Amino acid sequence: MTVTPAARPEVVTVGDADELGRRAADIVSEFVEAEPRGVLGVATGSSPEPLWAELVRRRRDGLRTDGLTLVALDEYVGLPAGHPESYRTFVRDRVAAPLGVDDDRVVVPDGTSADLLAATRAAEVHERRIADLGGVGLQIVGIGANGHLGFNEPGSPFRSLSRVVELADRTRLDNARYFGGDPRAVPSRAITQGLSTIMSARHVLLVVRGRTKAVALDAALHGPVTESLPASLLQWHPRVTIIADREALGAS
Ligand code: F6R
After folding, report:
1. pLDDT for 33-56, tens place per residue?
2. Mind listing the domains of the chain with CATH numbers?
3. Is the pTM of this model over 0.90?
4. What is the CA radius of gyration of the chain?
5. Does ligand 1 lie within 6 Å of residue 209's CB atom?
6. Whose CA is nearest to atom 10 of ligand 1?
7. CA pair distance 105, 112, nearest whole angstrom
8. Cα separation, 97 vs 7, whole angstroms
9. C-beta of 50 in contact with ligand 1 (< 6 A)
């Protein structure tokens, strides 16, 4: 069977992190001006950091971001409330507060219980909350060096909804920098929006920085659409914008 991609993703090449921040902020600004009370999907991690910094600058210059609802892409399982590396903490302190978004419009899966049943229920609640909000308008995502999207690791079903997943060794290794350099200190499980959930966003903005992502990004853009490289599924999304630096696009 041959499947024709819905539309080629638009790829914007940038020279440095500041330019990535500005180009990504152009897209978010356009979204928030069109939908001041829109639903913005938020990835954590290092790739979007220049975007948050630029949005804060634009807010100071008058951009109204305070009406947005922010929906997290994922959360670790088993970190206690208030843990500095929990994604709830990140989204609240690093994105919502600087953008003037009240806590009651910050939607993050509750990963505070390490109990698998409780985490599974929290994932279902996350999926339902996204549906109740009418879906995500603009979803920001990064890509893992192994091609993961959210925490949908290689092998994740395309039809997956928000659920509990086991993190790949590679992901724990990559995220060890946030946990004192020890991959074993990185939680082994997370709650993530599913691939189908991410694909339901009306517009997906993928931001990518650095050489370590080049192989995965090249495969996601030009390789077959396959569950062994979850980000390749974006080839089937009708509206994707990719903003990447030259290092990340090095293999393309
Ligand atoms: C984060 C997330 C992950 C990251 C990816 C890239 O919420 O879902 O998929 O986007 O691991 O991380 P960075 O940007 O730190 O390289």
Report:
1. 999 999 999 999 999 999 999 999
2. 10-245 (3.40.50.1360)
3. yes
4. 17
5. no
6. 142
7. 19
8. 35
9. no
